[in-house]
């Protein structure tokens, strides 16, 4: 049996999933090592969601990403007889150039290092893992799948900022993220509701990170994320859209350094910053604290404002799709957001919403409301399989 490993390397975590390659791709296990270098914790679940590994290590046993990968690799070799044919990596930034997944060699790796300043929190870890595996297993294909790639077909008008034009050529422009999730959802929508998928659709990826994507005929037209994954909607701990004048003020009057500002905007803002309680919507829904109420009201308000502007970009709206942690699991939040979309012609069916059905809107709703669980790892596995199959057939 051939297998494909999907890997997502973060600053202190390594998430992975293993797929069997057959007539399709079948998920075998899903796991992660978190707390790398501090309190390493290795968890693996089988395809049914049952825990099959639950192990803690000392920080010296798993001090860094490469040792975490080593642990995962050893476990996979002991437990799975299949032959690993490729590793698919989630790579946050492919810049303006990478509109498709790519097999990474030394040259491509160096090229992708150019984007480290554009995604300093994610890109270095994504690339470090690829580098480790290229050294350990030089013959094993390492495929980079980019969060930005799905948005590369935008009209250039969309991706400009109104600052002096030379900055665009220097890379200061809108890129968009969550592309692997949007691509997967676009594919699912084609299966579930092909007529709708051909139309004007907003997909709302509402998890810890949150964004909206406007699609026409399954292709990205607009995304609320911009140059970085800070823009657009307020998120669990990220600020979302903010007047750049606020940042100038904080630097000049508040005497904040760029690293303090970065930490505040990425880790201390959003739902967490507004509520002063938590970044987790479950905690906020369970609280009667005015901060929790404000945070959720603001979140819903900003989603509705952004949905309006994306609907304008599409010249109307045929469907609005919920996905990711909040979108998939919270009927209350879906209901609150859908209420704000009523002016566009969206009518939620309360029972369908409560039951988490695929179609959430009433039969005669002008705008369809849908629930489509995302699967970024499966998207990466498909791309990885596609790249190695293509390169084998061109040999
Ligand atoms: P990530 O962006 O880290 O991949 P997820 O898509 O897994 O995040 O979403 C995680 C978020 O989903 C949590 O922070 C939580 O706010 C939200 N969430 C998960 N389950 C529920 C639920 N039942 N009700 C409300 N929110 C939920």
Secondary-structure-based class equals alpha/beta
Question: What is the architecture of the largest domain at the second tier of CATH?
Answer: 2-Layer Sandwich
Portion in strands: 15-25%
Kindly state the mean pLDDT as a whole number?
95
Q: Could you describe the largest sheet, including whether it forms a barrel? A: 8 strands, mixed
Helix-strand pattern: EEEEEHEEHHEHHHHEEEHHHHHEHHHEH
- Please tell me what the overall shape is: globular
- Across the major sheet, the strand order is 5-4-3-2-1-6-8-7
**Which ligands does the model contain, each kind named once?**
adenosine-5'-diphosphate
Which homologous superfamily in CATH is the superfamily of the largest domain? ATPase, nucleotide binding domain
Number of helices: 16
Radius of gyration: 21 Å
Distance between the termini: 22 Å
pLDDT below 50 for ≥5 consecutive residues: which ranges? none
Helix content: 40-55%
What this model shows, in words?
Helix 2 runs antiparallel to helix 3 (123-136), helix 6 packs across helix 16 (376-393) and helix 12 packs across helix 14 (331-340). This protein folds into 2 domains: 2-146, ATPase, nucleotide binding domain (Nucleotidyltransferase, domain 5); 194-376, ATPase, nucleotide binding domain (Nucleotidyltransferase, domain 5, 2-Layer Sandwich). It has helices spanning 65-79, 106-113, 123-136, 156-159, 166-169, 179-192, 194-197, 244-252, 258-267, 270-275, 281-285, 290-314, 324-329, 331-340, 350-355, 376-393, and strands at 2-9, 14-21, 25-34, 41-46, 51-56, 83-91, 102-103, 142-146, 200-206, 210-216, 219-223, 319-323, 368-371. Strand 2 (14-21) and strand 3 form a beta hairpin. It is α/β, with parallel strands linked by helices. The protein has an 8-stranded mixed β-sheet with strand order 5-4-3-2-1-6-8-7, sandwiched between helices. Strands 11-10-9-12-13 form a 5-stranded mixed β-sheet, sandwiched between helices. The mean pLDDT is 95. Adenosine-5'-diphosphate binds next to helix 11 and helix 13.
